[in-house]
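Re: How this chain folds, sequence and tokenised backbone to follow
Notation: Tokens come from a learned vocabulary of local backbone shapes, not from coordinates.
Start of record: The labelled sequence and token lines come straight after this line.
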Amino acid sequence: MAKVPLGNKELKIGILGMTEGNGHPYSWSAMFNGFDPVEMAKCPFPVIPEYLSKQPPHTFGMPGVKLTHICCTGWKDREEAENVARASLIENVVDRPEDMIGEVDAVICATDVGDEHVERCRPFIEAGLPMFIDKPLVNKEEDLRTFLEWRNNGAQFLTSSSMRYCKEYEIFYNNHYELGELRYICSPMSKKFETYGIHALEAMYPLLGKGFVSIQSLGTYERSMMHIEHESGCHIDIPQGIGMAGAGILVIGTEGSRYMVCGDSYYAFKKQLDLFVHWLRTGEEPFPFEQSVELMKLVVAGLRSRAEGGRRVCLSEIEL
């Protein structure tokens, strides 16, 4: 297989799905290919056709790129893959993920269960295909070690949460001097920590940069509360719950405060995918992979803290 960078060649991309509650194969494929409004209206995630229908037509598609193959295994299989293909104009539906190998230039793993990602991605990593892997990359320490071993042996993959690219947050990442030194961040998030905790973590990560010290679970599976310490002296709380909506980011510094809400999911997802394609063509990663490693340590340590009765877990305990 050709290695990144792939230059200006026509790119064919495959996508993997699905997991319960995650409709990314529908929306992400549409961002590459456009969509059929009648078929997309049947999507089991109503929010997707709602926000896609609001976008100007010129925002869909990427020059020289098509999403050409889909395979759904796990929560939904062939029938759902065919539904996605009709809605998002995908030419080929395959029964086995491995059937994409030799047919595509790169693969997107659009599933958000970190415990499954090693086995979902293994065939493509071993075949030398570059990948984008949805958040969270992993939920377990041993899986993070596996991905690091693969990367050290030449595997090429990216991972991120789209929340890093919310346009309402981006402006503050490198320019928040008016707030002074950051002392407290609160980032309420929906659903469960295993799948959506990374959204809250990655949204606030660029405000502080590396240097996270510890994380402590002060809640339960259904009603999570993670308390995090950063070496700068800033403390972070992530309240989260099944059936609870997310609510942006509250940032408090020594000189001021801001409350920011992400209001354009399409922009964030599309930029995430645009940067994936830019990496495929140029080899330029959107941010250092070491940030993803630190974020995954936070996920792993948070789950460990919850499993161990709320013990404060230092990131230094995660051995790689």
Remarks:
- The chain has two domains: 11-134, 164-263+297-317.
